[in-house]
Design brief:
Blueprint lengths: L2 H30 L4 E2 L2 E9 L6 E8 L1 E2 L3 E4 L11 H8 L2 E6 L2 E9 L2 H14 L3 H8 L7 E5 L1
Antiparallel strand pairs: 1-2, 2-3, 2-6, 4-5, 5-8, 6-7, 7-8
Length: 151
């Protein structure tokens, strides 16, 4: 584990909590005024079922590559060495819901295989203005891509 990864691991929980505190109200305000897209980013409210608890879990995620029926999510977790919990929830139960533009959309998620990742990764780096490349460099794990498709 690199020194940078260790620092990120130690502070990731506080950062994730702060991010949720900030993005939650911004997302809800954006929905109220009908604005959930910033630059190339489409913000989605993701509902998964906890793999251990069976409880409904909510995460607010950006997608820089998306169409009407498909979203690509990048679980960087701020460069943490582990994937966020919602990735494990989607792996265990791929049928999820996404709240977007005032609608609940049933979707199915999966982890992109290596060929899908190769095809998509470069586009994500460009669309994120290099942020995803930096976050990939910080962590020792290969950041997965989660593909959500409308059911």
């Amino acid at each position: 584990m690199s020194a940078i990864s260790s620092v990120w691991d130690n502070g990731h929980r506080i950062g994730a909590q702060l991010l949720n505190i900030v993005t939650g109200p911004l997302f809800r305000f954006g929905q109220k005024i009908g604005y959930t897209t910033t630059l190339h980013v489409k913000w989605v409210e993701l509902y998964t079922i906890g793999r251990k608890t069976g409880l409904r879990r909510k995460s607010i995620m950006p997608s820089v590559l998306h169409t009407k029926d498909r979203f690509v999510l990048v679980p960087t977790y701020g460069g943490h060495t582990k994937s966020p919990g919602w990735v494990h929830n989607i792996t265990a139960k791929p049928e999820i819901e996404v709240a977007m533009d005032g609608k609940i959309i049933p979707m199915r998620g999966h982890i992109a295989d290596e060929s899908e990742r190769e095809e998509i990764w470069g586009k994500l780096v460009v669309r994120s203005l290099g942020i995803y490349a930096v976050l990939q460099a910080i962590t020792t794990r290969k950041v997965q891509l989660i593909i959500l498709e409308r059911i």
